[in-house]
Amino acid sequence: LSKDGRERSLLLQLTPYGLGQFLIVTRDVTQVEMLETTRKDFVANVSHELRTPLTVLLGFLETLQDMPAESLPLEQRQRYEQMMLEQTRHMQSIVSDLLTLSTLESSPTVEGETVQVSQLIESALKQGEAISGGQHSFVTDIDPRIAIQGMETELSSAVSNLITNAVRYTPKDGTITVRWYLNDSGEACYSVQDTGIGIAAQDIPRLTERFYRVDKGRSRSTGGTGLGLAITKHIIVRHNAELQIQSRLGVGSVFMLRFPKSRVRLQDC
Ligand code: ADP
């Protein structure tokens, strides 16, 4: 145990040291073990996430193979094909999100160019409205003058991820409020507030872990990969920004991205 009471792993090595003498070398391998556990968890998670759609896919393909073509009504065949297509697309999203994550991890910060974030928000809102299918109300307050020095593709992905999540985790008739403004310190803030299912306090710090979902069944049925917030967090860190999450179970959540003043570029409109 270390002074703060936390368990540490020590590696003791006995090395011959002169005649009949030995040297005991102690190495603290806690960090190495933690990294190894994270790596193993990650491999286990990826395998599990891919195995589920693969099992469904295999099941349908075997059924199709075992059934004589004439005994399978066209409608049923089309339903099977649709399900297989969905599972294949889901696997494709997982692989593509994993590739995005590994690219993002390869460099800590990004310079980029001036990005008109308000335009990215507008198109993310259109996408969100399409997913919502008219079931939610959208309220917006967006300052078009605020631009950010950064990578457009990354900012676009972070901006739309928060809107997509708000739609996914807000029941019918809920309201989603999207704001883009400068706060009193001159930082650019993007906030997405929903009146959705909310998140328990103990889950909030874990949301940006890869594949972490509060309710696994519910999240999978929404079509997400469980990697969206992990990707968002990486993008935000690369832009020297911060992700803040406030939520109350059954009341709703606010996800906020805060960009430092040094990244803000004010434009004349
Ligand atoms: P997913 O693809 O599962 O949505 P994310 O990384 O985007 O993956 O989100 C991780 C988890 O965080 C979700 O599975 C969900 O449990 C929770 N979550 C994200 N956004 C919200 C929200 N607006 N309201 C409630 N829960 C949310």
Automatic annotation (TrEMBL):
Any one GO molecular-function label of the UniProt entry: kinase activity
Record keywords, A-Z: ATP-binding, Cell membrane, Kinase, Membrane, Nucleotide-binding, Phosphoprotein, Transferase, Transmembrane, Transmembrane helix, Transport, Two-component regulatory system
Sequence ranges assigned to domain Histidine kinase in this UniProt record: 45-263
Principal localisation: membrane
UniProt-annotated location(s): Cell membrane
Domain of life: Bacteria
Catalysed conversion reaction: ATP + protein L-histidine = ADP + protein N-phospho-L-histidine
Enzyme Commission designation: 2.7.13.3
Protein name per Swiss-Prot or TrEMBL: histidine kinase
Portion of the full-length sequence here: 164 to 432 of 432
